[in-house]
Amino acid sequence: MKDHNLKSGAYYMKNLLENLDKKSYKIIKEEFDNLNLTSKEDKEYLMEELLKDKRKNVIALGNKIKKELDALEKEKIRVKGMYDFDRGFAKGNLLAGVDEVGRGPLAGPIVSACVVLDLDVLDEDMIYYLNDSKKLNKKKREELAEIIKEKAISYAIAEKSNEEIDSLGISYCNNKVFLEGLEGLSVKPSIVLSDGYLIKDVQIENKSVIKGDTKSATIAAASIIAKVYRDNLMEKYGEQYPEYGFESNVGYGAQKHIDALKEFGPTKIHRMSFLKNIL
């Protein structure tokens, strides 16, 4: 086997490839499944070596890596398009993206997140898998939320309670959490992109983007942070009020939630203004 600059996880790759042709497929598969390669270079090298083997099942392992690399390249192109979208508005200045979650539920707060990303990063340093938070599973959202917080130039979260929604109205609270999210940043962006509609009374340039969480990297990042924050909050409320299923419906009007409202009545986190046609 030719010399290879071993990186993290590559030590086990070297063991796998030593005397590859003399190993049974069962052993190869076990060692393959235990690999944790992180670099594209290592994955490409392993793929090439496995594809040289004459056994179809070993070649299939090489093709599995090829499929993963092809998918990663497509993801890179997709996410680069989202970063390029934001760069087109930023024009070299700081740009923020803002999004909300929890406008429609019967219970719990409305939450916004505002995020400023470094749009001048190299392709390999972009945050992959950014997307509308609702299109991601829970595990992926939580992983991405931590990555976003770590890599963001700045981020902020704002919320308005069910009591404030009842007294001030959902539209006012929706706009207010956008404004407070912007105010909570540690930097001052030159422009803010918002998902769907413009922010009232904002003091910097604002552009609205239809389905922005699928087009803009910063709006998608905000969408993910906001949803993870609110979902975790509603899980805690689910422990406090187990009859309503908040841990799964996050306050929306699922059947279990409606049935509990009719049997037990509203809790302290319900939006009474949203329950007029239910109770």
Question: What features would you describe in this structure?
Answer:
Belongs to the RNase HII family. It is found in: Cytoplasm. The protein is an alpha/beta fold. 49% of the residues lie in helices and 11% in strands. The chain has helices spanning 10-17, 25-33, 40-51, 56-90, 138-151, 162-168, 170-183, 217-240, 246-249, 255-264, and strands spanning 95-101, 110-116, 154-160, 191-195, 205-209. The protein has a 5-stranded mixed sheet with strand order 3-2-1-4-5. Strand 1 (95-101) and strand 2 form a beta hairpin. The chain is flat and about 75 Å long. Residues 1-8 have low confidence and may be disordered.
Topology of this protein?
Layout: H1 10-17, H2 25-33, H3 40-51, H4 56-90, E1 95-101, E2 110-116, H5 138-151, E3 154-160, H6 162-168, H7 170-183, E4 191-195, E5 205-209, H8 217-240, H9 246-249, H10 255-264
Parallel strand pairs: 1-4, 4-5
Antiparallel strand pairs: 1-2, 2-3
Helix pairs in contact: 3-4, 5-8, 6-7
What's the short version?
With 279 residues, this protein is an alpha/beta fold.
Q: Would you identify the regions where 5 or more consecutive residues have pLDDT less than 50? A: 1-8
The Cα radius of gyration reads 24 Å
N- to C-terminal separation?
73 Å
Quaternary state of the chains? single chain
CATH class of the largest domain: Alpha Beta
Residues in β-strands, percent: 5-15%
The SS-based structural class is: alpha/beta
**Which CATH-level-2 architecture of the largest domain?**
2-Layer Sandwich
Query: How many helices?
Result: 10
The name of the CATH superfamily of the largest domain reads Ribonuclease H-like superfamily/Ribonuclease H
Give the strand order of the largest sheet, numbering strands 1, 2, ... along the chain: 3-2-1-4-5
Main location: cytoplasm
Binding site for a divalent metal cation: 99-100, 195
Catalytic activity: Endonucleolytic cleavage to 5'-phosphomonoester
Organism: Clostridium thermobutyricum DSM 4928
